[in-house]
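Hi R.,

Here's the chain you asked about this morning:
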Amino acid sequence: MAEAVYLLCALTSLACAILLYRGYRRSRTRLLFWSSLCFAGLVINNVLLFVDLVVTGPEVDLKLLRSSVALVALGLLVYGLVEESR
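And the predicted structure, written out as C-alpha cells:
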C-alpha cells in the first residue's frame, strides 16, 4: 500500500509541475516558473523515495540524496519568492 502512495505523490507533483509550467507559458509570471521548478524537484524526490524504500531495500540508503534534492527544490522556490518581492 505504501508503494502506491509514493507513486501517487510523484504523479501529483508531476501534474502540479506541468500545470504550473503551462500557467507560466501563458502569463510569463516568473513565480509560476520557480514554482514549477520546485515541483519538478519534488517529483525527483518522490521517485528517489520510491527507489530508496521499495526498489533497493535496506542495503542502500538514499536519504542524503533525497534530502539534498528536496533542499535544492525548496531553495528554488524560496529564491523565486525573494526575487518576486523585489
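The chain has one domain: 2-85.

Let me know if you need anything else.
M.
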